[in-house]
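Morning. Coffee machine broken again, so started the prediction first thing and wrote up yesterday's gels while waiting. Chain of 77 residues, entered below exactly as on the submission form.
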Amino acid sequence: MANVREIDARFLSCPMPLLKLRKELAGMQPGDQVCVYTTDPGAYQDFTAFCERSAHKLVNMTQTAEGFALTVECGES
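Came back before lunch.
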């Protein structure tokens, strides 16, 4: 069963949500997931671009009452 972690990056401006995600992914195993809660409207584009350039995968993006929840699956490092 994959490990799922959460990061509360609400009210943090770019690039902080992405930096927090990268730090968390560094300590994870392939297949593990991290859900980032953010209010940054540019996070979807930032996370998409990051995942396209890395082995990680953006698996879900949901709009919430306070912003967005983005789930990224850790790939091979």
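Helices lie at 16-26, 43-52. Going to sketch it on the whiteboard this afternoon.
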